[in-house]
Amino acid sequence: MSRAAVPSSAQERTISAARRWAMLAAGTGAQAATSAMVTAPSFLIPELHRPRAAGGYGMSLAEAGLVAAAAMAGMMCTLVLWGLVVDRRGERFALLAGLLVTATGGAAAAALAQPWPMAAALGFAGIGAAATNSASGRVVVGWFPPERRGIAMGIRQTGQPLGVGIAAATVAVIARHHGIGPALWVPTAASLAVAAYVAIVVLDPPRPPAVAGRTVANPYRTDSYLTRIHAASVLLVVPQFLVWTFGLTWLVDDLGWSPGVAGLVVAGTQLAGAAARVGVGWISDLAGSRMRPMRTVALLAAGTMALLGVAATDANGSTLVSMAAVALLVAASAITVADNGLAYTAVAERAGPFWSGRALGVQNTAQHVVAVAVPPLAGLTITAWGYGATYALAAALPLVAVSVVPVAGERRVS
Q1: pTM for the whole thing?
Q2: Which of 134, 135, 197, 317 could form a disulfide with 94 if both were Cys (CB 3.0 to 4.6 A apart)?
Q3: For residue 10, what are the contacts with CB-CB under 8 A and spacing of at least 6?
Q4: What is the pLDDT of residues 71-102, one digit of tens each?
Q5: Distance separating the N- and C-terminal Cα atoms of the chain
């Protein structure tokens, strides 16, 4: 019997609470593994940028930024297509296929271990990584009731900062001591391990029976609610990827930290980001709103990035200012990721079970179109004006997002 033919309540009665949470763990793990793969190249920037005479590759920051953006570019190009796969073939199929493609691309990149061929392989890995963004989000929304979705999606969204944390703690130090090829085996192995777990525990969530001859309404034609969420998320993703991509490089190049210590600090920022996502998800469940907390996050992101810009400009001037700048980097890394779970939950809830895959694909595509441009453009801006000015400029975008978040158009979560 097909999934659509089975009544929702009948399927739900066969799923225990333990299985529901196990599937949440699988979705979170899938997001962590693929996020580690997509962001790992950012932590290769110190080696790619290091002069050839010192054992590096002698690339400019803009060139290294292009290599770092390769996996994100592959992801960006296929997010909507994977969303269509989710809507047509189901979440389990998309998760398994995506993780296997990610691992294949990662293994090829590790074997090649030269910047431009490696970038091509990482682009292929990014194509696979795109699957988890739509599929694992739909698993959470499909299996958890509305009053628990905020915190459940917040937990699922911790996969992204946790994956970045894993990459930050391992990739830079392995690349420094063993080369960029071995460093990429970390996210590759993680993708393979999570694929095995997904195969064991994940089931496609129930959907209402499809009615023959009835067309499901396109939620984008109803109002501008989804479009405004996408637009606000695009504005908020710029400071997020800026601090992710260049936070470690700033600590190493400007403040003179070792890659190992800098990597541990960046990994710590990701734990703070994971906690922030769970916290705002819990708040959204209590408030019965996703958009009001998202607007608050945008305000906090603008303020924190502006302060970081000021502190980073004078970070070499005194130990106290340097410590304040690092503390603001930690805060910015947590705050700028806190909105993602709110946006994903709101998009999936409004789009409904027959459109959520594509809607989440559009959400991710919009974010990654901008995210792909952040490393090379920020590399040029940092080279011209410095880290402080670049951080301060990024503060303007979440400030604009405050007015874009569709608070007035939200339907109360119930």
Answers
A1: 0.70
A2: 135
A3: none
A4: 988 988 888 888 888 878 888 999 999 999 99
A5: 31
